[in-house]
């Protein structure tokens, strides 16, 4: 398995401290605080460790404070309810004695039900789009002279491969519509654990949201004079999905 992906999976493998209590470590991705997707993924792992025979089908979360990358995060799980088909869990992420994140997740026994789905968007297949590495080099070439620290961040190998349908150079932003579609998957195969796949999808889902919201303003995380952070997050898992197969995020 690729080293960067292995490190991410290790990051999601929380250390049990006590009943309903887990500890996780953070990775420095070049930002000023902990990546929100990491906290979502770790919180879902913590909740899932207290549930048997059920899979996550939804989560609703709030980011309360920026996470400190230099300190571990403690996840405290409250077993709100275990019913015949559903289980509910509340998770608080704590650093320096204060909650930085709060989430409620619901888990369900997998059983048949009604299904429907809107038509697949008419977009190019991921194989026909430039890779993340190709895009990064193109963006750096177009940007010209930029600080070496920024170049290192842009070139950093990530465990998730993102291939946008309409690539937008964050180093030379222009105003555009606040919408985009992005193919993504892990850069290597992931073990056949449905809960792990859900947690990795949750991790990846926090990427590209703020950049999309900034598009109409022609701004990016490099523009300065702004405080950028995820505030809340919601997800529903309608069926099993593999994070190592291409998924379209619109």
Verbal overview:
By secondary structure, the chain is α+β, with helices and mostly antiparallel strands. The chain has one domain: Porin, CATH 2.40.160. It contains 6 helices and 10 strands. Strands 1-2-4-5-6-3-9 form a 7-stranded antiparallel beta sheet, with helices on one face. β5 and β6 form a beta hairpin. The longest helix has 13 residues. The radius of gyration is 19 Å and the shape is globular. The two termini are 28 Å apart.
Oligomeric nature of the chains: single chain
Number of strands: 10
Domain module tally: 1
| Rg, Å, rounded | 19 Å
Low-pLDDT segments, ≥5 res: none
Question: Descriptors for this entry?
Answer:
alpha+beta, Porin
Question: Brief overview, please?
Answer:
The chain has 250 residues and is an alpha+beta fold. It has six helices and ten strands; from the N terminus they run αββαββββααββααββ.
Question: Could you give the topology of this structure?
Answer:
Blueprint: H1 3-12, E1 15-18, E2 21-24, H2 36-48, E3 55-63, E4 73-82, E5 86-95, E6 98-108, H3 132-143, H4 148-155, E7 160-164, E8 182-186, H5 194-205, H6 209-214, E9 232-236, E10 247-249
Antiparallel strand pairs: 1-2, 2-4, 3-6, 3-9, 4-5, 5-6, 7-8, 8-10
């Amino acid at each position: 398995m690729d080293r960067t992906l292995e490190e991410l999976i290790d990051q999601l493998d929380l250390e049990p401290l006590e009943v309903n209590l887990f500890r996780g470590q953070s990775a420095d991705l070049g930002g000023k605080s902990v990546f929100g997707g990491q906290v979502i993924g770790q919180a879902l792992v913590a909740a899932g460790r207290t549930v048997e025979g059920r899979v996550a089908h939804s989560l609703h979360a709030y980011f309360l404070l920026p996470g400190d990358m230099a300190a571990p995060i403690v996840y405290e799980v409250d077993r709100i309810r275990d019913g015949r088909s559903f289980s509910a869990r509340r998770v608080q992420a704590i650093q320096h004695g204060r909650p930085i994140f709060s989430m409620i997740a619901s888990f369900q026994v997998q059983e048949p039900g009604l299904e429907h789905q809107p038509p697949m968007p008419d977009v190019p297949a991921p194989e026909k789009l430039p890779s993340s590495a190709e895009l990064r080099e193109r963006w750096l070439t177009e940007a010209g002279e930029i600080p070496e620290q920024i170049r290192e961040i842009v070139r950093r190998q990530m465990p998730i491969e993102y291939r946008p349908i309409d690539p937008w150079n964050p180093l030379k932003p222009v105003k555009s519509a606040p919408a985009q579609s992005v193919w993504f998957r892990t850069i290597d195969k992931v073990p056949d654990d449905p809960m792990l796949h859900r947690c990795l999808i949750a991790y990846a889902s926090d990427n590209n949201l703020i950049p999309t919201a900034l598009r109409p303003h022609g701004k990016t995380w490099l523009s300065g004079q702004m405080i950028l952070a995820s505030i809340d997050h919601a997800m529903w898992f309608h069926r099993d999905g593999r994070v190592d197969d291409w998924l379209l995020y619109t």
